[in-house]
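Could you show me just one protein sequence together with its fold in token form as a worked example?
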Amino acid sequence: ASDDITPSNEILFSYKLNDQPWSSWSYETTESYILSDGEYNFTVRAKDLAGNIGYAYYNFTIDTTSPTITLTQYPPQITNETTITFEWTASDDFTSSNEILFSYKIDNQPWSSWSYETTESYILPDGQHSFVVRAKDLAGNIGYAYYNFTVDTTSPTITLTQYPPQITNETTITFEWTA
């Protein structure tokens, strides 16, 4: 603190966090806290030799929890569709949903750039695939959602292993097959 009359080494300080009581007046200019997630308001006051008091305020949030991602559209675990669309949302304790950034990827492709996009479509070949979306809140915490699925557009091959001749005089007919 500085003052027009009182030397800075003679200014007294008192401080508090949120609704805690004020500290005793002292010449201390540092205080440390161990805090959990939450919203905080730190206030420090300074008193000169004439008894005048000035205030400084600082509001801040501690957020160590990653956003939670919910996939709202995704393919079945096994699908015969090759055009696949994913949609998602995210929620967070301290960051509003419209301020959460997303990045996503399919299989071993690179991550997309961070954006506010909440949907992506792919045209995929047959096989197993893995989709990952990540969400980043304003504190920089990152949450992930994973989804594994298989695209299968190949029909099964059926082989008849027992069947009657094309012209028969039998009235009881048996068929057998494998796939």
Observations:
- The first strand starts at residue 12 and ends at 17.
- Residues 2 and 8 are 5 Å apart (CA to CA).
- The mean pLDDT is 97.
